Amino acid sequence: MFTITFLDLSAGMGLCATGLLTLNILIGMVLSTAYKRSVYWKKLPPKLREISMDDLHNWTAYLALFFVCLHPLFLLLDSGNQFSFRDIFWPLQAPKQPNMVLLGTLSFYALLIVIISSQKIIKQNISFRFWKNIHLISYGTALLFLIHGLQMDPELKDRPTDYLDAEKFFSEACILIVLIASFIRYRYHLQSQNKNRK
Ligand code: HEM
Description:
mainly alpha
């Protein structure tokens, strides 16, 4: 009979967080441009244009954080592995793939820092430049959690990554999307720098 274990749920939460964080990064990139002046934005149906991109950006981050918290929690509830509470926050002695788990833990800390620094009370007390520099950590965070998700064995049996597996294909698609979007965003940055110089 087909049964769902806590380990399966943990992997599912990790995949949900990966999808949401990828979407969140894309929205963040759009927000950092003059998107409302773009022809593509103007062509969108009015109902879609009414959606606040700021709210969408905030809520995808909060929802992703929720899934990121559930992901190691389900791992602890799974009786078939030896992960301890300490391995979640300090995974250097984790029973399986400690280096890859460390990438996940670091992305969790980085996500927390970015979310906390974006709270009104903090934002009002730091300069825009400082806040933006903290926010730019998100590019590195994406790299960490995407490598983590791709390399972790969802069954924790030290198997090599099956790059054709559906879940791994999802992480690969997210990596491709983030890389292409970052390239487009960087080109936009260079173009606006050139315009400012003229
Ligand atoms: C931004 C944070 C994180 C994201 C987006 C993320 C995402 C993922 C993804 C996509 C997988 C592979 C699932 C699969 O292929 O079916 C995975 C596996 C795993 N992750 Fe994370 N992770 C994050 C943080 C963490 C943290 C903090 C830990 C701490 C222990 C952790 C531990 C694990 C472990 C042990 C696995 C293998 C078992 C499983 O699939 O649940 N991850 N993660």
